[in-house]
Design goal:
Elements lengths: L1 H17 L1 H9 L5 H19 L8 H19 L11 H12 L15 H16 L1 H12 L5 H17 L10 H25 L4 H12 L14 H14 L3 H8 L3 H6 L1 H17 L6 H12 L14 H13 L12 H19 L8 E2 L4 E2 L1 H27 L4 H12 L14 H16 L2 H11 L4
Antiparallel strand pairs: 1-2
Helix pairs in contact: 1-3, 1-4, 2-6, 4-5, 4-8, 4-21, 5-6, 5-20, 6-7, 6-10, 7-8, 7-9, 9-10, 9-11, 10-11, 11-15, 14-15, 14-16, 14-17, 15-16, 16-19, 17-18, 18-19, 18-20, 19-20
């Protein structure tokens, strides 16, 4: 466990560096810097203590899971400090906002954005940008770049540690042969799209502050906004939809695109499924509401699990709301910033239905492989997909029931739970006025959604079994 706290200390020190940006914003707008400084100093000091009283060593996959859970807890607790004064020191709302930021959810307890300090709004947007690529991935990139040449016998431990950090960050498939090159490439892709996003948003009329913060939250498919007035001009809607789509597509696919493999980018199973679902849902939604901006924006926002909205969700036709819920559950691609069950699992589910029919229509001795475009899926992979989707739906059902017991309607409860678990952020409830118990239910759903359920369950099992 000592090595876990060593790396946790490094992550907290890294968070202190990220707090420099809102500090600069506070200086520019002549706002109070006290709580931002408190957060930065606390993060760096606690991180330094963790590093001092722990030991650097190889990190196992279980250690990586522990690191992820602990980092989310410490980062969100310290991350709420800059916004405490803006929330009148309401810890429940401030912590909810911090969790929603780092998990890239976008549910908010703020009813009047224009009354909040610019530095607070900037920090909450920045937390989503950090959460999008994952602070662990940023740390892995820095660690791999600063690491000195090592002896051959130490290489195995380094590979295991880097792999554990990568998986703990919520990613699985490498985009380059080594973790060093993979993390470097991911940061490069994220950085390039971030720069392009700011430029495009400036071109369509957003001021610099809004352009940076909206890039933060659209590319990370997160959903926080910084103004009470939505951005609804045609160019703004198109650019925001583009950034949301870019954020919900796999880094692996983006790597192919940037290397000039355009055909491979559009023909991957996940991307084909994503664009097919997007087009079909938009087409169906257009039958119930003829405003193409609302249809395009709300469906894109739901499927990419971003959570932006340019209209009151509760006032939309129920069929459109249903499509949005289904889209939120499906979500974006694996190895992307998006949430949901992910496109590959949805694609596997669709492919496995005719496969299962065919399998049971043949003799038990017959070998009936489940083929995707590039490989044959093992039955164990299909089983894991089914279990994950089943668990996902079960969590929504349990969370919905808990919110209903607290007094919310079925529509509000189910929509809000699907939004929190999918790390989407669309809301039909007033979070600020929701009971603390309701906030806790949604916070747990956001954590489960960001950690993709199983890692947290594995850790809980290990803790209850008292296993090392």
């Amino acid at each position: 466990m000592k090595e876990v706290f060593y790396y946790l200390g490094s992550l907290l020190q890294l968070q202190a560096l990220f707090l420099i940006l809102p500090l600069i914003v506070a200086l520019i707008y002549s706002e109070s810097m006290f709580l931002i400084i408190v957060a930065a100093v606390s993060s760096f000091a606690i991180g330094s203590l963790f590093r001092k009283f722990s030991e650097k060593g190889p990190l196992t996959l279980l250690g990586g899971i522990k690191l992820t859970v602990l980092s989310f807890f410490f980062l969100t607790v310290i991350g709420m400090i800059p916004s405490l004064a803006a929330f009148d020191y309401d810890i429940g709302n401030a912590y909810f906002e911090s969790v929603s930021g780092f998990t890239t959810t976008g549910l908010t307890a703020i009813n009047d954005l224009d009354s909040f300090p610019r530095s607070t709004l900037f920090w909450r947007s920045e937390t989503q940008w950090i959460g999008g690529v994952g602070i662990i991935i940023v740390f892995l990139f820095i660690l791999s770049q600063l690491r000195k040449p090592i002896r051959r016998k130490e290489m195995e431990q380094v590979i295991e540690t880097d792999s554990s950090l990568y998986k703990a960050g919520g990613f699985s498939e490498k985009i380059e042969p080594t973790m060093k090159e993979t993390s470097k490439r991911m940061i490069f892709i994220y950085g390039i799209y971030s720069l392009i996003g700011v430029i495009l948003l400036l071109v369509v009329g957003l001021p610099l502050f809004e352009a940076i913060t909206m890039m933060f939250t659209s590319l990370s498919t997160a959903g926080f906004v910084v103004s009470n007035d939505p951005y609804t001009t045609t160019p703004q809607v198109i650019v925001l939809c583009l950034l949301m789509i870019l954020g919900s597509i796999s880094f692996v696919a983006h790597n192919k695109l940037l290397r000039g493999k355009v055909k491979e980018f559009f023909t991957t199973a996940e991307n084909k499924t994503f664009f097919f679902v997007l087009v079909v849902f938009i087409a169906v939604a257009f039958f119930v509401i003829k405003d193409w901006k609302i249809v395009l924006f709300q469906i894109t926002s739901s499927l990419t699990t971003t959570g932006f909205s340019i209209t009151k969700v509760a006032l939309l036709p129920h069929l459109l709301i249903m499509l949005m819920v289904i889209a939120m559950i499906i979500g974006g691609s694996t190895t992307s910033t998006a949430g949901g069950i992910k496109q590959f699992r949805f694609y596997t589910l669709l492919k496995s239905i005719p496969w299962l029919v065919k399998k049971y229509s043949n003799p038990t001795t017959a070998i009936v492989p489940l083929k995707t475009k590039k490989r044959v899926l093992e039955e164990e992979e299909v089983l894991i997909t089914y279990i994950f989707i089943g668990s996902y739906v079960l969590v929504i059902a349990i969370g919905t029931a808990l919110l209903m017991l607290l007094g919310s309607t079925f529509l509000d409860s189910s929509f809000q739970l699907a939004s929190a678990l999918g790390t989407v952020g669309l809301q039909t409830m007033n979070i600020a006025e929701t009971a603390l118990a309701g906030k806790i239910v949604l916070i747990l759903a956001m954590f489960l959604g960001r950690l993709e359920i199983f890692p947290l369950f594995v850790l809980i099992k290990k803790l209850f079994n008292h296993e090392k």
